[in-house]
Design brief:
It is a single chain. Strand 2 and strand 3 form a beta hairpin. The chain is globular. Helix 5 packs across helix 20. It is about 30% helix and about 20% strand. The strands form 6 sheets. An 8-stranded mixed beta sheet has the order 5-6-4-17-16-15-7-8. The chain is of the alpha/beta class and about 700 residues long. It contains 25 helices and 27 strands.
Length: about 700
């Protein structure tokens, strides 16, 4: 037996980006832990970080290339001679797929992509993914779509999570990223957490918040539609569904009407203030007194002014999650949060700031490197703006988009309106998927490449506070990295991708993202492997953004008011509209032991054994009304599978909560096309459902 080696890297799960150390022997991970001096982890990992590595050597891993038998049958006559000859030699993998040699598979992919482009034009191809793999691969992915295939249609899973954070912040202050390091939690006096179940979704950030709240160095306010664990350690405001913008504008109203704003800061660094101020002060929905009309939520009329005063008069940090962004007015709610920070100078210095809690290990890096239809790398304007994922679904149904390359994005599970998604992707002539495991999208894929996981490769990941961390392999694997597959296909199309190592790719990517990454060489990042470095990085890194000026063209932050639109639950409560007995409002979220579509966590027995099916939480007061421990939820878009219900005290009557980790629950079949009106992020946090006992 060989020696046990300790290897340092970065966690593969959420956007917290914890530093990890793996104990490895004979190419097997024995244990993962955090060093006591870990910069992000601070010596502690959540259960996913410490126990969620079983997927790496799972027997279910895709360790080969696969091609669908039906795809080869349909294309056989048109195949080039050298490919056609090799079809007869292919080994059967199962009833649907052949196991295929890598060289053959990349040639087949290149041939079919070229054929589709020649037959239908360059807009017939799109690419989706990039937030689960390294910056090297996400950079290469958008380059493959834009240059290799000459299509503008590239997107990533930020579309279903934090795109409204990027949009709302970028519009007003020129940058869509977290402004401060997590450790500023220890330097602040007041913390607001809104729309984030932080202890479940970002536990190592929650550790810091809990520590500050328990030590009373900072007051804590939690704003959510249900009671969550974090709320026990501070003030908790339970708000109606879709009332985020309503509450945020009310906070601004209090700050403005009581003159708690910082005139000096606003005069020096902002514009559009007078118009914004007049709009709010004359808006009937912005006065907290309005809450007295909202049945069951009247107490908010007293609570909102208290937290607004606290935010304005103390050094404050504002954290938010998908409970803000996954709404019709997600971008506008983010803008309202930015307004609060600008009003009170809670931005541009230590111990304050705007902190969107990013969901994926590299969603920040995927956006930085240009995996968005309206941004090139470094958030430059592309020569041609492509379509966003929901628009691409319509194009597939219309028969105009014919091929899709998916990189680590289970679009057939995680996206909304799954009946429509399944209809759209069934209409494609080609789906290529880079994946670790068989999931919902690989079941549709014509060509599958088994690729390395984050624990098997070298690459840069950017966490939720702009911190670049250079990972290194914990174990060796024979599969290619995502960027290698893309290179090898492109070389059979145009022959222009000349890269031998991930460092070659990084050296180009860091120049493409020059205003943020230019100084971040592999050498510098490996020297700072434990701490990481926060972009913008030139000679040194930049922990705090917006110190002297905002990152806008004129350096000024802008106020742009948007009025709350009365609708759904708030409207019904105000107008006393009776709801049918079986009508409920549902919201969704994560549980600590699972992660998104469960690709890695379901394959890690230590995690999956603790939560092997999605559960609906309902109010104890609704036990009689629901009348069953198993339900189906239905609406005009579709229906879920039969799901177990647990009745709890933390949920308001008339509302429900569920997770969406297991595809078999079919939760995303009940979400439609309603989305953020600026950026098309789905309304996952609020859907009206009818509940039927199973």
């Amino acid at each position: 037996m060989s020696m046990v080696a300790d290897i340092n890297s970065v966690c593969t799960y959420c956007g917290t980006g914890c530093d990890i150390t793996a104990q490895v022997q004979d190419n097997k991970i024995l244990k993962i832990y955090a060093q006591n001096d870990g910069y992000v982890s601070q010596g502690k990992l959540c259960i996913k970080g410490s126990k969620g590595y079983g997927f790496v050597d799972s027997p279910q891993r895709i360790r080969n290339c696969r091609v669908k038998k039906s795809f080869l049958k349909e294309n056989l006559e048109e195949l080039p001679r050298e490919l056609k000859a090799r079809v007869k030699t292919l080994k059967e993998f199962d009833e649907n797929y052949y196991e295929t040699p890598y060289e053959f598979t990349t040639s087949l992919a290149a041939w079919k992509l070229l054929q589709i482009k020649e037959k239908y034009g360059r807009h017939a191809f799109c690419g989706m993914g990039g937030a689960r793999t390294s910056c090297e691969s996400s950079y290469m992915f958008q380059k493959f779509v834009r240059e290799g295939m000459d299509s503008p249609h590239v997107d990533n899973c930020a579309r279903v999570c934090h795109s409204p954070s990027l949009k709302g912040m970028k519009m007003l202050i020129g940058e869509g990223a977290a402004t401060n390091p997590f450790d500023d939690i220890y330097k602040t006096e007041n913390i607001i957490v809104m729309g984030s179940n932080t202890t479940e979704a970002h536990p190592i950030v929650a550790n810091r918040i809990l520590k500050a709240a328990k030590a009373k160095t900072a007051s804590l306010t939690v704003i959510d539609v249900r009671q969550i664990q974090l709320g026990k350690y501070g003030e908790e405001l339970i708000i109606p569904y879709e009332a985020n913008l309503l509450v945020l504008n009310m906070m601004a109203y209090v700050i403005l009407s009581e003159r708690l704003y910082n005139n000096e800061f606003i005069d020096a660094r902002c514009k559009g203030f007078e118009e914004y101020k007049n709009s709010i002060l004359n808006d009937k929905f912005a006065n907290p007194e309005f809450m007295k009309q909202v049945k069951g939520y009247e107490v908010l009329a007293e609570q909102i002014p208290v937290i607004a005063r606290q935010y304005a008069t103390k050094k404050s940090m504002f954290f938010w999650g998908l409970g803000i962004t996954e709404h019709l007015d997600g971008s506008y709610a983010v803008m309202a949060i930015v307004h609060l920070a600008m009003l009170t100078e809670n931005i541009g210095k230590e111990g304050v700031g705007l902190m969107p809690l990013r969901g994926q290990n590299n969603v920040q890096g995927a956006c930085d490197t240009g995996c968005l239809p309206y941004f090139d790398p470094d958030y430059k304007t592309p020569k041609e703006i492509g379509l966003m994922t929901p628009q691409l679904m319509d194009e597939m149904i219309a028969g105009r988009v014919k091929a899709m390359y998916v990189m680590g994005e289970d679009i057939a599970h995680i996206h909304p309106n799954q009946n429509k998604v399944h209809k759209a992707i069934a209409n494609l002539e080609l789906i290529i998927s880079n994946e670790l495991f068989v999931n919902e999208i690989t079941k549709f894929a014509d060509i599958i490449f088994g690729v390395k996981s984050a624990y098997e490769k070298t690459g840069v990941y950017v966490n939720a506070m702009r911190r670049l961390h250079l990972s290194q392999p914990l174990v060796e694997a024979s599969m290619p990295d995502d960027w290698e597959v893309l290179r090898d296909i492109e070389n059979k199309i145009n022959g222009e991708f000349d890269y031998s190592t991930s460092e070659d790719v990084w050296n180009e990517a860091k120049e493409a993202v020059g205003t943020r990454y230019s100084g971040a060489t592999y050498h510098k990042l490996s020297k700072n492997r434990n701490r990481g470095m926060q972009w913008p990085i030139t000679k040194d890194d930049t922990p705090i953004l917006h110190l002297d000026k905002f990152r806008t063209q004129d350096g000024k932050g802008e106020f742009k008011y948007h009025q709350y639109q009365l609708r759904e639950q708030v409207e019904k409560l105000v107008k006393g509209i009776q709801t049918p007995k079986n009508e409920f409002y549902l919201t969704t979220g994560r549980t600590i032991v699972q992660y998104n579509n469960g690709a890695q966590t379901i394959q890690s027995e230590a995690l999956n054994s603790r939560y092997d099916k999605d559960i609906v939480l309902a109010s104890k007061e609704d036990e009689e009304r629901i009348g069953s421990n198993e339900i189906i939820m239905k609406n005009e878009y579709g229906e879920t599978a039969i799901m177990p219900v647990k009745f709890v005290k933390t949920i308001k009557p008339g509302t429900l909560f569920t997770t969406f980790h297991h595809a078999s629950s079919r939760v995303n079949y009940i979400f439609g096309d309603e989305a953020d009106e600026l950026i098309m992020t789905a309304r996952f946090k609020s859907v009206k459902v009818n509940v039927y006992p199973a």
